[in-house]
Design a protein that fits this description.
Low-confidence stretches of chain B: 1-24, 842-846
Distance between the termini of chain B: 42 Å
Oligomer: heterodimer
Largest interface: A-B, 50 and 51 residues
Number of helices of chain A: 14
Number of helices of chain B: 35
Shape of chain A: globular
Distance between the termini of chain A: 21 Å
Number of strands of chain B: 34
Strand content of chain B: 15-25%
Helix content of chain B: 25-40%
């Protein structure tokens, strides 16, 4: 059952009711935030929320990978659900696409894709966030159909009876050539929305919901592509709002202590799922260091303890 | 067997073989006292060494770089090689200072901690760029307390599949870009504002911090651990495992291990050991003969090495000189070298008894995690230079430093000038250029330095570029300046009016160096005109590097020139050779009709004609191949020409299964050619093209003694490939009744039968192996079965059914062949083991190896090697033919290239590693020598070491050194194998002989 969202803000009861009824609680609010002339999220979005006991997996590219090391989104989601027992496993990989192009390692991407699915299954998630589309968008219109097909396949491959999916659109470019890049990104974002609707998946629409460079003096990226801390903080608000909460203006969400603990946990998990020296520990030079593979699962209790610590800190800030 | 099964199998095998052997030779670890370490160094005459800094000031230095204030930044890791569960990564970047100028660090600051294996540090942009495993960071101190408090992830997504391969070797280039390297096992996927950049395997990245533009400068190498620029900006590269000494780098160059290329370049010192770090030394403190020397480190052999370059063709020749430092201490591990602010040479000493990354347990307690040294090498009796804080100099003073004889001073001055920016520097620079004396012998270089400054300064600004200066340098009388300017045209392409036209002269330049840079620049700019120009270089003589550069340009610009060739508008200035070169290089089969027409019209020169026919043979369709076939069989064609063209035609059959149209039985004429090479190719062609009419002739050649071995063996092999009963009957006859009862021919006949019918062949093989006395012939038979799908299992089944027994020797040949196949083949292995058990008098289970040792026995054996064994006896054993050492391994310039070069094995590897490798070859396989097992669509199973791999083709080198080209489309399955070195090679040696052999090997390179 959904945990109680946003304790203090007005409208909490309404929101609670809305999430019970599986309606999209914030569709109209989101529309107001969108930049002029942009497509807004459609009200047919499948509502999603986080529940007690949820095991969350994040899949995606650099946006997801760096979130693991910044922790804003995860911290905000945990803080918004102080009573819930949630776990987060970040499987972001820089430069990745829906074809798992960054995950082939010594094999072709197709094998990396299979490994990614196997790992997701191993983690037994109840909810998976899928954040792709930016790197694919460099292919423009020509690559759109293939992207859609593969995104649908990814959704089908991830989905089981116990797994809810939430698709995430890429936030805007703030590069020198942002106009052209965002025109391409808009089309890919629309495809992601369409696939989310078709696959009954939830949506976090960063493309329309994050303020853009149109807002004077308000850049959200460090280099035009990757979010700054301020950008991640904004993105965290969008995630929390999309999950059915009116506000993330919670003490816990702003707590550096909690966020540091989230990051520490994610770093431990990084060593667990993408350990250095994979070549020697698990792959074709395993005969040399395979004996040290026993160390890798030893990260598991450390990850769990660190995550427990996150929960304690969240409760402590109430 | 799929990859995972192979791993499981290998793992199971290893678990049986894993006695605690690792690095037993390293029992005696010397005291870490720096005084003792210094005393143990042998230093080249005229030089002396002092300790600049040591633990606890620094620990485990990985890279060092000076800043313009003369401070030394050192990155260190004690987490390496692998973070432990629960361990907090707390590696550091430390700044060392020698404030009183006595050559010893007297101040140190921990600039940054909390890092994870920071393999590189380069101060710059108000802080330092730091490699942090998967991340490329910029750290800076914003509050002035000397410690970094700001951390920016500049780039991320670098691989960490192997922590001694993660990004490293940070260095500013002459263009103010930051260059850095990654090594063989790394796969990087980096999102930049200009798109995703990917690099699989080794290579050199090039990064412009102000624009965040990232690209790959060159690719390949195994452990790409050194990169230096000469005073003209040319790149020299070292490899910690490639063994080819000094390598020449230029944009687009590809070396050993480069992913996805069918062609690679070679280093300049083949067969030389492995090097880490690289610096070109110069300056007034060092003696005249040191000027321009390359200094690098053979950390495995505890040496600091010197090379001298001479310019040659489009690149260099490199000659190894005597060592600068050599230590007998196993813990002296020089890994980085830099010129310092006082004109001395600084050496970073990682200080570790253990250097092996994979081969020694990550948790081996002898891995040192606390010590580290920086040594300072000075020339005796020569004054050191006064140190300069370049940040305190005025802009004109900094420009003046560009005239310095010290590359250190020039580099630091440029760093500060770049940091001051375009507005501050360009006006002064313009004055400075005006002030240069055109009669100064250094004038051309100084003008290039000015252009380089503009290149770096203008990239980060809106300032107009100085096109006139660029044009002046492009017209410099010094080829090195012209070559450098050609590369700069690329950088400024967006801001130049007609960049391609600026490069038009370079491709016909009298200097090969200029042609090389011009071609690479044009290929990078792209477009039809650029492509047409680049191909001018095909008119001129080309050394390896230049030929590669033009070949690559033709491939990269194919889309631009091919339509022009097809519609007849390609501007070749009457030089059709350019078109032939481009079509062949880019495998542009669509253009073959153009070449056929040209050949038919007789409009091409004789020199071009052979290249044209070769291109048609490689790329053409059956009708086009017919044109070549008619030339081959024409009486006017020389045997040598025919041989080359037949090679190309056979290659096309192998790769594309195409055969010349029409009746090809005329090839029979060449079967009888008195030229052996030509006859052998023609015989091979009869099988490839299924010329059944040749059967009788082939059988005759095989049986009669009048032709050479090559031709007769070719005939036997061809009979294996021809359809129908007569060839089979001829082979069966040879199996039992070879001329002169020659076992070699019998074996060849059995091998030829294998692809026809494994069962037929197995029956013959059992009979043959039961009596054959020639070990080589027996091996040929085993190898043939191992190459066929189900071959080994079928042979094993045949052994089981047969009543005849296999001799002990024959079974051992079989075991070696299985071992060299890099696969397990359990059925055959079992059959062979059973045969050995039956053959042994006791009838008991055979020992895994007569030399297997438990730890105590190994201790005793190590003592035997040290005290009693003899190097010269060992050398004689090494040379024994039956041990096959020389067949596969190279020492100096003698021996094969299948296995690792052993020239410095003794210097690089401890005793127990050598013993282990002889006893259990599959246990520690050197990087680049892991095998690949491929099953092809036509039922072959091939094992070898990867030479190159591209989208179209995989090239493997097998245990005999032969290269096998396998079309990617023909690969059914691919898996990882073990070592090509057969186990049990040394079983026939006595314990004393084995000790002598180990002693000899361990003396190599010392």
């Amino acid at each position: 059952m959904p945990v109680s969202p946003a304790r203090s803000s007005h409208g909490a009861y309404l929101l609670l009711l809305a999430s019970f009824l599986s309606l999209s609680p914030l569709a109209s609010l989101r529309g107001q935030d969108a930049a002029p002339g942009q497509t807004t999220s459609r009200s047919s979005d499948v509502a999603w929320s986080l529940r007690d006991g949820d095991r969350v997996v994040f899949l995606g590219d650099t946006f997801v990978e760096r979130e693991g090391d910044r922790g804003f989104i995860e911290t905000a989601l945990v803080a918004a659900h102080p009573e819930a027992s949630l776990t987060f496993r970040n499987l972001g990989w820089s430069g990745d696409t829906v074809w798992a192009e960054s995950r082939g390692v010594f094999d072709q991407p197709a094998k990396g894709y299979e490994r990614m699915l196997a790992l997701v299954r191993e983690l037994k998630p109840t909810i998976v966030f899928v954040a792709y589309g930016r790197n694919e968008s460099y292919q423009g219109e020509a690559g759109l159909a293939a992207f859609r097909t593969q995104l649908e396949k990814l959704c089908d491959d991830l989905r089981t009876a116990d797994v809810r999916l939430v698709l995430v659109t890429p936030h805007r470019f703030e590069t020198a050539d942002a106009a052209a890049r965002n025109a391409a990104l808009a089309v890919y974002s629309q495809t992601i929305r369409d696939v989310a609707a078709a696959k009954q998946a939830g949506l976090v629409d960063l493309f329309t919901q994050l303020p853009t460079t149109a807002t004077p003096g308000h850049t959200l990226t460090e280099n035009g592509v990757h979010l700054s801390n301020a950008g991640y903080a904004e993105a965290a608000r969008v995630f929390v709002a999309a999950s059915g909460h009116a506000s993330s203006a919670d003490v816990a969400a702003r707590s550096v202590t909690i966020r540091n603990q989230v990051v520490a946990k994610n770093r431990l998990f990084f060593h667990r799922w993408r350990p250095a020296n994979e070549t020697y520990i698990f792959l074709f030079r395993k005969h040399e260091q395979g004996n040290n593979a026993v160390e890798i699962p030893q990260f598991d209790p450390l990850v769990e303890a660190a995550e427990q610590q996150v929960r304690s800190l969240v409760k402590g800030t109430r | 067997m799929n990859l995972r099964l192979a791993f499981v199998a290998v793992c199971l095998m290893m678990s049986c073989l894993r006695p605690a052997l690792a690095q037993r030779g390293l029992k005696d670890i010397p005291s870490p006292d720096p005084v003792a370490e210094l005393a143990a160094m042998q230093v080249a005459e005229g030089y002396e060494v002092n300790l600049f800094a040591a633990d606890p000031l620094i620990t485990k230095p990985l890279q060092m770089n000076f800043d313009p204030q003369g401070r030394l930044w050192v990155s260190s890791s004690s987490v390496y090689p692998q973070i432990k569960p629960g361990e907090v990564a707390n590696d550091t970047v430390t700044i060392l200072e020698d404030r009183d100028g006595d050559g010893r660090a007297d101040a140190h600051t921990v600039f940054a901690d909390g890092l994870l294996m920071p393999t590189a540090v380069q101060p710059g942009d108000g802080g330092a760029y730091v490699a942090n495993s998967t991340e490329f960071l910029h750290l800076s101190d914003t509050n002035g307390d000397g410690k970094a408090d700001s951390r920016r992830v500049v780039l991320s997504g670098f691989g960490a599949e192997d922590t001694h391969h993660i990004i490293h070797t940070f260095r500013y280039g002459p263009d103010a870009r930051l260059y850095f390297n990654q090594s063989i096992y790394i796969h990087s996927h980096v999102e930049t504002p200009r798109g995703v950049r990917r690099l699989n395997a080794g290579g050199i990245w090039r990064f412009a911090p102000e624009s965040l533009a990232l690209d790959v400068f060159a690719r390949g190498w195994v452990n790409t651990w050194g990169h230096a620029f000469d005073r003209w900006g040319r790149s020299l590269v070292t490899d910690g495992a490639g063994g080819e000494g000094i390598n020449y780098g230029f944009p687009g160059a590809a070396y050993l291990t480069a992913a996805g290329t069918p062609r690679i370049l070679k280093g300049m010192n083949p067969g030389s050991p492995k090097y880490c770090g690289l610096e070109i030394v110069d300056g007034r403190h060092l003696p005249d003969d040191a000027q321009g020397q390359l200094i690098t480190n053979d950390f495995r052999a505890n040496r600091v090495c010197r090379f001298r370059l001479t310019e040659q063709g489009s690149g260099f020749a490199s000659e190894k000189l005597s060592d600068l430092i050599h230590s007998q201490r196993v813990t002296f591990r020089p890994i980085d070298v830099k010129m310092g602010p006082d004109g001395a040479i600084y050496i970073a000493d990682w200080y570790n008894p253990i250097i092996q990354h994979g081969e020694v347990d990550f948790r081996d307690e002898r891995r040192d995690r606390t010590h580290g040294r920086i040594w300072r090498v000075t020339a005796k009796g020569r004054p050191v230079l006064p140190r300069i804080d370049f940040t305190k100099l005025s802009t004109p003073e900094l420009l003046g430093q560009l005239k310095s004889p010290e590359s250190y001073a020039r580099d630091m001055a440029k760093r500060v000038l770049f940091a001051r920016g375009s507005e501050a520097v360009v006006p002064e620079l313009s004055k400075w250029i005006q002030s240069l004396d055109s009669l100064d012998p250094d004038f051309e270089r100084l003008r290039l330095e000015a252009l380089r400054l503009r290149q770096g300064l203008d990239r980060g600004s809106q300032h107009d570029i100085d096109a006139d200066l660029l044009k002046a340098v492009l017209a410099s009388p010094d080829a090195r300046a012209r070559a450098a300017a050609a590369r700069i045209v690329c950088d400024w392409a967006d801001r130049l009016e007609a960049p391609v036209e600026l490069l038009a002269q370079t491709v016909d330049d009298p200097s090969a160096l200029v042609r090389l840079e011009g071609v690479r620049a044009l290929a990078t700019l792209g477009g039809r005109r650029a492509a047409e120009l680049a191909l001018h270089a095909a008119d001129h003589e080309r050394d390896d590097a230049l030929d590669y550069a033009v070949w690559l340009a033709a491939r990269e610009t194919k889309e631009a020139w091919l339509p022009a060739v097809l519609d007849g508008t390609f501007a070749d200035d009457g030089r059709f050779g350019r078109v032939i070169f481009a079509v062949a290089a880019a495998e542009a089969s669509a253009a073959v009709p153009r070449i056929v027409t040209a050949v038919a019209g007789g409009k091409i020169t004789d020199a071009d004609r052979q290249a044209a026919l070769s291109a048609i043979a490689k790329l053409g369709n059956p009708d086009q191949l017919r044109v070549v076939f008619d030339v081959v069989t024409s009486p006017a064609t020389s045997p040598a020409q025919a041989t080359t063209l037949l090679d190309d035609l056979l290659d096309s059959h192998r790769r594309r299964r195409v055969v010349p149209t029409g009746d090809v039985s005329a090839i029979e004429k060449l079967v009888m050619s008195p030229d052996d090479a030509c006859a052998a190719r023609a015989i091979e062609a009869t099988a490839a093209w299924q010329v059944t009419a040749a059967t009788e002739e082939l059988a005759g050649i095989a049986e009669a003694g009048s032709r050479s071995l090559t031709v007769r063996n070719a005939a036997i092999a061809a009979l294996g490939g021809l359809p129908g009963d007569p060839p089979r009957a001829a082979l069966l006859k040879l199996c039992t009744n070879a001329p002169g009862n020659d076992e070699g021919f019998k074996a060849a006949a059995i091998a030829a039968l294998v692809p026809r019918s494994v069962t037929d062949a197995a029956a013959q093989a059992v009979a043959f192996l039961g009596t054959a006395r020639d070990a080589k012939a027996r091996t040929v038979v085993f190898q043939a079965f191992l190459k066929a799908k189900d071959g080994a299992a079928t042979l094993a089944a045949a052994f089981e059914r047969a009543s005849s027994t296999l001799s002990d020797d024959a079974a051992k040949d079989g075991q070696q062949a299985v071992s060299a196949s890099g696969r397990q083949e359990p059925a055959l292995t079992q059959a062979l083991a059973a045969a050995i058990a039956r053959a042994s008098t006791a009838g008991t289970q055979p020992a895994a190896s007569p030399h297997a040792m438990d730890p105590a026995a190994l201790d005793a054996f190590v003592s035997l090697v040290r005290d009693k064994a003899d190097v010269s006896r060992g050398a004689a054993i090494y040379a024994r033919e039956n041990l096959k050492c020389v067949t596969c391994h190279r020492i100096g310039d003698q021996g094969g290239r299948v296995g690792p070069n052993l020239t410095a094995i003794g210097a690089s590897s401890p005793l127990d590693y050598v013993i282990d490798s002889l006893l259990y070859p599959a246990k520690n396989v050197k990087e680049g020598y892991n095998t690949v097992v491929v099953q092809t669509a036509d039922g072959q199973v091939l094992t070898g070491i990867q030479v190159t791999r591209s989208d179209a083709e995989l090239v493997l080198r097998d245990a005999t050194g032969k290269e096998m080209k396998i079309p990617t489309a023909d690969i059914d399955e691919e898996s990882a194998g073990t070592s090509l070195m057969p186990a049990g090679l040394i079983d026939g040696l006595s314990r004393e002989e084995l000790a002598d052999l180990v002693r000899y090997l361990s003396s190599l390179g010392k």
